[in-house]
Amino acid sequence: MLLAAIGVINMGLSQLAINHACAMFRILRIILENAFDEERLSFRKYNEEEITATLYRFIHSHNRVIEFIKSMNTMCDLSYTINIVFGMVIVITDSIMMLQFNLDMANLYKFFTTLFHLSSILSIGIIQSHVGQNLMDHSTDIFQETITKPWYLLPPRLQKLSLLIMMRSMKKCSLTVSKLLTVSYELFSKGLQTAVSYAMIFHSLEK
Question: Where are the membrane-spanning stretches (predicted)?
Answer without folding.
Answer: 80-101, 107-127
